Amino acid sequence: MAELLTADSCALLVNDYEENYDNLVVQVQDVFPGTLDGHMLSKTAEYGLLLSDGRHSVLVMLLPKLNHLLEAKKIISGAFLKIEGVRCRTMGGYRVITITYATVIGEPASDIIGDPEEISLKLNALVSKSSAAAKPKRHPFLAQLKGNGRAYGGVGRPSEPAGSSSFQASSSSSKKGKIRAAHPHSSTFISGSMVAESSSTTDNPLFTDLVPDMIDYTVYGRIYEMKGPHSFRNQRSTGKVMTLVLKDRENNGMRVVVFDRAYEVMKREAAVDSILRITDARIQEMAEKFQHVGLLLNEITLNDTSDWEVCASDHGIPPMAVAFTALPLLRAVESKSRVNVLAIVKEVGKRHSFGAGQRVASDGAQDADTNHAPGQVSAERRRLEVQLVDPSMNIIRFTLWDKRADMWNGFRGNVVFLKDVVVVRYGGVGLTAYDATVIQMNPKLEGVSELKKWWTNLPNGSVFQHLSSGYSASGGLTVDTAPRSDPLSFKEVLDSNFGQDKRVDTFHIFGVITKIARNTTYEACRFEGCNRSLQKTGFCLTEEHAEQPENDGEKRYCTAEAVELPLIAFSPVGDVIMGTTADEVHKMQAHLDGPYSELLRDTLSGLTWFKFTVQARTRSWKQNNGRMKYELQYTVIAALKIKDDDDDDWDKDEDKDGPVDAEEVKAADTEYNTMLLFLYNVRAAQRPSCELCLRTWDNPRLSAGLSQKARSQSAAG
DNA sequence: TACACCTTTAGCTGCTGATG
DNA sequence: CATCAGCAGCTAAAGGTGTA
Questions:
Q1: In this entry, which stretches build a coiled coil (predicted)?
Q2: At a CB cut-off of 8 Å and minimum separation 6, what does A143 contact?
Q3: In whole angstroms, what is the distance from residue A358 CA to residue A380 CA?
């Protein structure tokens, strides 16, 4: 049995920063749940193993994805484990070894081979004599803060009394020698009997070297987190506080608490990823309630007298090591979760300006009484939509609001790093920047150059799959971004539950416009992205747009077109449908017999096929009688001219989401219903009633489906 | 004035839960 | 001199386009 074991494998695990092993076999001495103060460390249970090579034993963590080996009772005391993947970190002054890949070999032995002595994982950090030496630090993962020792027997074997030789205690029993704080690149190999040696870190101390009340030091760290400031109140005082998490060059996590004026300066000058120099700031033991996995047990506090600054140099601190969530995985992520994303900017939409009132709650109608009176001047809200891609060939929509939208400075092809971006579910999965979200263009992070290379070498005509079911028309995103590639027939749309209840669905349909109405334009605010009308009052009701730019007296026009189903298309999509800008259409409209009728004739020729991207959603609003009304609505959010015999302007390059060739058009012709787009006049006199709309369908089944849908929707309201 | 359609985030409140 | 919760869940507050 003993011959199975690899000699000195425990020492290898402790000292070697290798991540892969071919033939490292150890015996499982013990299995226990990883706890901190009696609590499981995370929602995913994490387990610790005491592994033995016959001479020594070492405490390791098991990556939760290997928990199935425990559940299957394969990893039990006495079992032999072939370790193939290992991750080794320094945390809280301890070596934390995590087994990332292992297989169980052979049959478990009935007893433990030899009389192994547990190797301490405590690093020989520099400590002051006053406090830290007297109060031994605790292993960040496995220490029992109440000093009860390791919690035995959680898995695979019956309960056993908590050993007096707790993990912490065993570190003090390291009579055999201490482990040197091995540098990752150090080739020094320590086997069997280990050499006590103190690290020479006085010149450039690590966070592990800091102890309470220490003075005469300077440390450097990279900001990983920035929270607050938020208000607090206690018996003695009230104030505001900001908390940072910094990591030093060996990835030790240090909490930094910023008080008083210091947080104002910090907020102004520093950001996530900034390097901070801190000199002689107060160090104190962290209150238990703030202790957290990955953080040292001491913290630094800064106030207005503290000596710190943001540095330009990284002082040897490696780039941020961040765990990213790949785009396709976001489909499975709970709404409102915060994730980190590294992706390529595929498209940047246009900033859209709209008002901030008259909100009807998306979930439930109860708070709809916050409705604003129409025509009242109100503040502006701005939205920007960005499409991100990664090598999974998926696209996701990233939304920014107001200041965040203004501050966006990314372009197509940029690598963007989003830290703590929020997963939202609105028409499929999307991302929204919240206050805490950190946005960095072209960051210095691992994986960035690979990502850039992937984007640069992407073959032309590559097809992306959209994870969001849609995006906003007002974002001005190009039509080559397809939420779904296959077009639906009208019947399929009408028979579906698209857009019902809280669903927001985006899909494609093919169609030919056969009827079009006049006077589909109105004079709009001249501020970019704002579609509000100037017609009634002569000024924009958005407060910030009160002063209209002169523009040589030129008016700016927007299209507000409604098409049947009922479909709705505003600028800029309306412009695509019309084949010209709303401004031009408006000029033409002045002379009905001139170019406008030509435009209509061309548009209605039946030769121009469109691929429409349509978004279905149920809208709700509060009626005057206090009851809610619901209506299913179809909005055109993108229109792509896919075939026009007379039109040489058809830009083939525009169609990047897959070939839309003659064959596809033909398929649409035969497979799908011919869609009659009746662009009716929004003016009352010429606006057909709903009944009239329905009668224009030549397919009675579709008409029936539509009117039934309309009935059921109004019945719901 | 009523109706139809567009649809988010910040900030506050109040609870958490093992232990004796 | 020492100061610090965190989170889920709820709610307020934020305009714009148009017609009848």
A1: none
A2: A36, A167, A168
A3: 13
The DSSP code for A4 is G
- Same domain, residue pair A544 and A671: yes
Give the domain range for residue A62.
2-176
Through-space separation of residue A37 CA and nucleotide B19 C1' in angstroms: 13
| Low pLDDT (below 50) residues in chain A | 35-44, 92-93, 123-202, 356-377, 476, 479, 482-485, 516-519, 552-554, 556-565, 621-624, 626-627, 643-717
- A227 and A164 in one domain? no
Nucleotide nearest A289, CA–C1', reads C5
Nucleotides on chain C that have an atom closer than 7 A to a protein CB are 2-6, 8, 11-20
Amino acid identity, position A168: Q
A66: CATH = 2.40.50.140
Determine whether the distance from the CB of A629 to the nearest atom of strand B is below 7 Å. Answer: yes
For residues A699 and A673, is the Cβ–Cβ distance under 8 A?
yes
d(CA A556, CA A552): 11
What count of other Cβ atoms lies within 10 Å of the Cβ of residue A3? Answer: 7
Asked if residue A286 is part of any domain, the answer here is yes
Same domain, residue pair A517 and A454: no
Q: Which two tokens stand for residue A437?
A: 């979200």
Nearest residue to nucleotide B8, by CA–C1' distance, is: A401
> Is A359's CB less than 7 Å from nucleic acid strand B?
yes
Residue A377 sits in the same domain as residue A239: no
Structural contact between residues A308 and A302, judged by C-beta atoms closer than 8 angstroms: yes
Q: Which of A440, A466, A492 is the last residue of a domain?
A: A466
Q: What is the C-alpha radius of gyration for chain A, rounded to an integer number of angstroms?
A: 33
Q: Please identify which residue in the block is written with the tokens 């329905």.
A: A694
Length of chain A as a residue count? 717
Distance (Å) from CA A435 to C1' B10? 9
A23 CB less than 7 Å from any atom of strand B:
no
Say if pTM beats, i.e. exceeds, 0.70.
no
For residues A257 and A353, membership in a common domain is answered with no
Percentage, residues of chain A above pLDDT 70: 41
pLDDT digits (tens, 9 = 90+) for A403-427: 777 778 888 889 988 887 777 766 5
- The spacing between the Cα labelled CA in A6 and the C1' in B5, in angstroms, equals 72
> A33 preceded by cis ω (within 30°)?
no
**Which nucleotide's C1' is closest to A239 (Cα)?**
C3
Q: Measured CA to C1', what is the nucleotide nearest A619? A: B5
Domain count, chain A: 4
Q: What is the DSSP letter of A315?
A: T
Asked whether residue A668 falls in the same domain as residue A536, the answer is yes
* Protein chain A, residues 450-479, with a C-beta closer than 7 Å to any atom of nucleic acid strand B: 472
Same domain for A455 and A531: no
Q: Which nucleotide is nearest to A433 (CA to C1')?
A: B9
Domain boundary residue, one of A466, A496, A531? A466
Indicate whether A522 and A451 sit together in one domain. no
The reply to whether A186 has its C-beta less than 7 Å from any atom of strand B is no
Distance of alpha carbon A254 from its chain centroid, rounded?
25
